[in-house]
Amino acid sequence: MKSITIKEVVLHHINVSMIAPFTTSFGTMQAKDVCLVEVIDESGVSGWGETVTSNEPYYNEETTFTTVYILKDFLIPRVIHRQIDHPSEVHGMLTFVRRNNIAKAALETAIWDAFAKKNGKSVAEILGGMKHEIEVGKSIGIQDSPSDLVDQVGQFVEEGFKRIKIKIGPQADLDYVAAVRSKYPDILLMADANSAYTLEDLDHLKKLDQYNLMMIEQPLAHDDIVDHATLQKALETPICLDESIHSLEDARKAIELGSCRIINIKIGRVGGLQESLLIHDLCKENNIPVWCGGMLETGIGRAHNIQLTTLSNFTMPGDTAPSSHYWKEDLVTPEITMDSGIITVPGGFGIGYGIDHRKLEKVRVSTERITTSESTHPIPS
Ligand code: OSB
Ligand code: MG
């Protein structure tokens, strides 16, 4: 396959507003800054990625602002003007920077897109993904009351979503789950706590076992895998880890300890597509099903999620709902749509969707063009 050498990186700084606020146990998001990373190869081919951050470090330690700093001062100087034979190499080129995985993923995914386009393939084909259709679930933020939640669930079940995820926290849990279950006894239902509990809540969390949930996502601390193992032993409901898994090594340790029975793979949280692929493969060997999480992405991040989900061990519906569930107008063309809970994987090269430049201009805040590897810091070669 043809290698790529990046001659220029364009950072498109945008600000986007969601159609409705989204509330989790750590806060509410309505608008955010996003940095779109466009890498341009010597041949003129462009690849796109995005920082899947918000403006506050409440999900993990990164914000859009920190990702831009890390990209400009460290990550871009490391990759620009260097021959890259395959995008699987990029993650290793960036490990000299500790963590900052969302920043790394924004650049790494853009390089996968450019490499795939240059070689006339989709990102999925290069990853080894074979699915032509992916199943989609809907993630619903915390609502003001159980009956508001039941109304929302009804709407999304009607639209055909294959699985419903509800956000929970100590202020909104058992009565919310009970209300949904009594109205919809048979749907695939799960709950995401975003680290809102501790082991002291063990008896309380056990009460969730009666609702036949597919899984409970990240009940305990964002940086824990030890207490989750204790909790998993006490619960019938499978635990799925999100926040705690940043790498293949984290996944290995969580599986070894029995901290979870399912893993949510987010490309941003683990530093890119290559690490996502390795975690996918490890989970497959260990009979741990995976699904693709969402970070309220624009269509660019969403398109990468769709490409990744074509891998065979993504056996559970992901949080990759259509664009219209988040944005009045998305940045990609055609817009990402769903039919009865199924997204058809696009046939095109790279991420399979184009950039709608007219819509991009509407949300643009500023633009930076980087053409040299200069940095005020020492960068390893
Ligand atoms: O925990 O999965 C999460 C959004 C922002 C940060 C963390 C999470 C989420 C979601 C949104 O659940 C899912 C989506 O993109 O629809
Ligand atoms: Mg989660």
Pick out its properties:
381 residues, Enolase-like, domain 1, single chain, binds magnesium ion, seven-stranded parallel beta sheet, five-stranded antiparallel beta sheet
- Ligands bound here? 2-succinylbenzoate, magnesium ion
Main-sheet strand order equals 6-7-8-9-10-11-12
Distance between the terminal alpha carbons, to the nearest Å? Answer: 24 Å
CATH top level label of the largest domain: Alpha Beta
Global geometry: globular
Question: What is the count of distinct domains?
Answer: 2
What's the tally of helices?
12
Structural class: alpha/beta
Percent strand: 15-25%
Series of H and E elements? EEEHEHHHEEHEHEHEHEHEHEHEEEHE
Tell me the total number of β-strands.
16
CATH topology-level fold name of the largest domain? TIM Barrel
| CATH homologous superfamily assignment of the largest domain | Enolase-like C-terminal domain
Main β sheet profile: 7 strands, parallel
Explain what this protein looks like in three dimensions.
The protein is an alpha/beta fold and 381 residues long. The chain has two domains: 4-120 and 357-370, Enolase-like, N-terminal domain (Enolase-like, domain 1, 2-Layer Sandwich), CATH 3.30.390; 125-354, Alpha-Beta Barrel (TIM Barrel), CATH 3.20.20.120. Helices cover 32% and strands 22% of the residues. The protein is built from twelve helices and 16 strands. The protein has helices at residues 64-79, 90-93, 101-118, 123-127, 146-159, 174-183, 202-206, 226-234, 248-257, 273-285, 299-309, 357-363, and strands at residues 4-24, 27-41, 46-50, 83-84, 133-135, 138-140, 164-167, 189-192, 216-217, 239-241, 262-265, 290-292, 332-333, 342-344, 354-355, 364-370. A seven-stranded parallel beta sheet has the order 6-7-8-9-10-11-12. The model has no long low-confidence stretch (mean pLDDT 98). Magnesium ion (MG) binds next to loops.
